[in-house]
Write a structure and sequence with these properties.
With 270 residues, the chain is mainly alpha-helical. The protein has 2 domains: 2-74, no CATH class; 130-269, no CATH class. Helices cover 64% and strands 0% of the residues. The chain has helices spanning 2-12, 22-29, 33-45, 61-66, 68-74, 92-99, 127-158, 162-182, 188-212, 226-235, 239-269.
Amino acid sequence: MQGVHATSDIQGTTPDTSARTIAQMCADNGTAVETVRQAWNRARSSGVVGRPYTQENVPTVEEIQAVAPLRKMTGQAKNKHTAAPKKAALPIERVKAVHGESGVRRNEDEGAHPAPPAVVVAPVVGVESHWKRPLLYLAVGVIGLISWQNIAAVTGHLFESWFNSQLITAVFTFAAPFLAWAGMMRGWGSALVILMVLFEGLCNVTRIYGGLTNFDTPGRMGYPTRFLGLVTDICDSGTLMTAKIIAVVMSALLCGLFFIFIFELKKEEK
């Protein structure tokens, strides 16, 4: 009996950590109170701990789990499933009042009338999407025809044969639209199209410049056209430099439109 009473006395003197304040727990474990305070405030700012910090707080099990220093002092493992309390479900009477017996939500202001179902409108495919691709090819073809004679004039100086000149002109003119139509404008295909369009732009620059300065007209070679003369009078600029600027701008506009149409065709392929 004495052994039993002794055991009971020993168990009664074991400290109950759940009834100890934060100050007592820190003193027993040699932990700084400031460390606990900072961890407590962080947990409170995140919404895990609700009440403000004081040294006289007797932490609950949830607060010990939320504050790392307290958890280490009590030797508890962190509960990974600890989460903010869920919202309480509506009472059954409230659910029935809002949704009715069938479970379908209704408008409380209008009684038992259910809310109208949402109307899903299917997208309408217009004429624009139907004609977009043919119009893009038409625009590319028009720009190609504009560049055809300019490229042919330049390649005519590169090849002595008229047939070879027209053949290389056809390759440079129709290669880009064909690659877009075949869906081959990926990687090297896109780079090749860019290089060919730049060559077309160079041919356009030389031909426009030659036309403005009459370099192709015997007896008037180097003399500006009436249009170029008017521009130089208005801008008070030199003849040759003005002709170069006009040629570059016009060629850039053609190349820009060509690039836009070609890469729009590329997007249509996807």
